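User: Structure please.
Assistant: Input sequence and predicted structure:
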Amino acid sequence: MEINKTKLKVIMSKFNSASSRLLQSSFDSYLDDLKRFCNYLEKNELIMEYINSCGGYTSAIESHIDECMIDGEKISFSLDEDEETSEIYSFIKVICNRSYPMFPHRILLQYSSSSEYCDKLKEFNHSVVYALINHISDYLKKVGIEMGIDDNVTYNIHGQQVNIANDNASISAVQNNYGIDADQLKDLITSMREAIKPDLSPEDAKDVNECIDVIEGELTSAQPNENRVKDKFKILSRIDAGTKFASACCSLLTFADKVHPFLDQIIPWFQSLI
């Protein structure tokens, strides 16, 4: 696959987001997020080239899964890195292709003595999913170094996040899964609320706060809904909440558009109100 430096960086960023979303998924939504993760891998030519070079999909894993579920044992994978990559990918693909309504409980039972499935899922991620993520991350890092970009790229796993730091940069624990400073975002959201003019009607004040709630929720998620964010900002731009509020909106948009470029289109709506 022919790839330039910019495309590689985009792949790294999207892999980071896809991995983080899976690792932060709740038990109820885990199977859906696992399918999203698997679909992302299979649509990415560079990543699939690596997985196929490790052996690709192996059908033998299917009977191994069934045996372990019947016997109530952990699924064991090869100690060889390439074989482990192939086997974990195959494991994920089998689970996603079967018609399970939820991620199979029996697979998780041996990963933690806790009675809570969220604890079992966390340990499963640490034992299985992290291994595949690390192998793919190491491969992307290797490609980057061979291309002469970001020789000091490091992949740091904090809790249940997968972050990419470039050129000796450090990634703070307050950053969320796609690289935005969560504390600063929270401060800017607070400033927006505080900037609402006090004589706003109760109905308009309610609409403004509801829009801010949605915007905050979307911007702190791994994959914000662009149309939803734009719709809420459009409502805010039509409500006369004061020039101080419009300025606070501009501050948030200017800060967040570095991570979410689509926000740049919204900034003029509020600049005209200042």
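Residues 5-165 form one domain.
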